[in-house]
Specification:
Blueprint: H1 2-23, H2 34-37, H3 45-56, H4 65-74, H5 80-92, H6 98-110, H7 115-127, H8 144-151
Helix pairs in contact: 1-6, 3-4, 5-6, 5-7
Length: 160
């Protein structure tokens, strides 16, 4: 039963992603491809972003690039429960958007099995320095280790 509920979440993400970026996102796209990121030095945030995209078979979604940046910064995977938990973490960090609220509400209703994980993620976001509004495109050449250590108390294990 949980497998089917995860499939529903995955379908909802796929369907709503296009609508949200087209009609609600106002920021300019980065116009950067995964291969360009993978050419950056290996210690950089940008390289790790490219590696995350490559590992998952993704390209950056125009106008929603920062979402994948959050994955790299936090270490959260791209599975359904991690996608929901990441939104809880961002909510704890102060981010507010229609999409975030939709993911939290609908995701929690469909996948309540991870409620403890969601609460933990919210707490991590509350404890972290503000990161949801950083200019991630401008930070592509920054060391990932440096970036994480400025945001999280224990950057090697953000759950502590």
């Amino acid at each position: 039963m949980i497998k089917q509920r995860k499939q529903i979440i995955a379908w909802l993400f796929k369907v709503t992603q296009y609508v949200y970026t087209k009609y609600f996102k106002r920021n300019a796209p980065w116009n950067i491809k995964k291969q360009q990121l993978l050419q950056l030095p290996q210690h950089t945030f940008g390289y790790h972003l490219g590696a995350f995209l490559d590992t998952n078979g993704f390209e950056l979604i125009p106008k929603a690039e920062r979402h994948d940046a959050y994955h790299v910064l936090t270490g959260y995977n791209s599975n359904e429960q991690d996608e929901i938990a990441l939104q809880y973490l961002c909510f704890g960090n102060g981010k507010r958007s229609l999409y975030l609220f939709g993911v939290i509400i609908i995701g929690t209703i469909i996948l309540p099995d991870y409620w403890t994980y969601y609460k933990q993620s919210y707490s991590i976001g509350k404890k972290a320095n503000s990161f949801y509004s950083l200019d991630y495109k401008g930070l592509l050449n920054t060391s990932l280790t440096t970036l994480k250590s400025t945001i999280f108390k224990n950057p090697n294990n953000i759950t502590e």
